[in-house]
Amino acid sequence: MTSIEDKRALIGESEKKFAYSLAAMVLDKPKISVWMILVPIIIVFYMYKHKKYVSDRDVFAENYLIERNRALEATVSALESDKHLQAATAIKSPRIPENTRKEYTAWMQVLMDHYAALLRCDGESIESLLKSAYKNRTNYLLFLNQLNTVEKQFNAALMPHLQEASKNVDEIIQRMELDSEKLRREEMTRVFS
């Protein structure tokens, strides 16, 4: 039987891969062109842009994972101490505006329930944990739809607070939501084919 620590590592690694895949889809990666070969000085500009892209990708993934890691750790802690999984009491994030607490808590609860389902199953890979927890494609799709819904609700509640940071934040969030759904459906197809 796989230990809870091993399953935590599998889940964490899966979330990390997802975050980097999402970052690659959301962020614009610089493209190499023929001019860079013909005019070598242009390659310096490309290398600068590529280095910035890699840095931005890492920052994106790191920030994307903060709350998910918080939910995973709260879930592990609750399961190890036989406590009830309740996001409202288990997770207090100082980064979240007070008027978005309801949506944040709903999102965290869905994540915690998902992580708990995976942690209660046995498997040697994230795919085997997903199969064991959800049994079939339909059940997993229901979870994905629920996750997409609560994420969109939280993003909508958070949007007014993010407008100050960037003028095109609504485009970025919409792109993240669409790309997240696409990646999740690809995972569903891969796991439950």
Kindly describe this structure.
α1 crosses α5. About 80% of the residues lie in helices and about 0% in strands. It is globular. It is mainly α and about 190 residues long. The protein has eight helices and no strands.
CA-atom Rg in angstroms: 19 Å
Largest sheet: none
Termini separation: 25 Å
- Residue stretches low in confidence (pLDDT < 50, at least 5 long) are none
| Tally of DSSP β-strands | 0
Overall 3D shape: globular
Measured by DSSP, the beta-strand proportion falls in under 5%
Oligomer: single chain
Order of SSEs: HHHHHHHH
Query: What average pLDDT do the residues reach?
Result: 89
SSE blueprint:
Elements: H1 4-26, H2 34-38, H3 41-80, H4 87-90, H5 101-120, H6 126-134, H7 137-162, H8 169-191
Helix pairs in contact: 1-3, 1-5, 1-8, 3-5, 5-6, 5-7, 7-8
Descriptors:
about 190 residues, mainly alpha, 8 helices
Give me a quick take on this structure.
With 193 residues, the chain is mainly alpha-helical. Helices cover 78% and strands 0% of the residues. The longest helix is centred in the first third of the chain and has 40 residues, at 41-80.
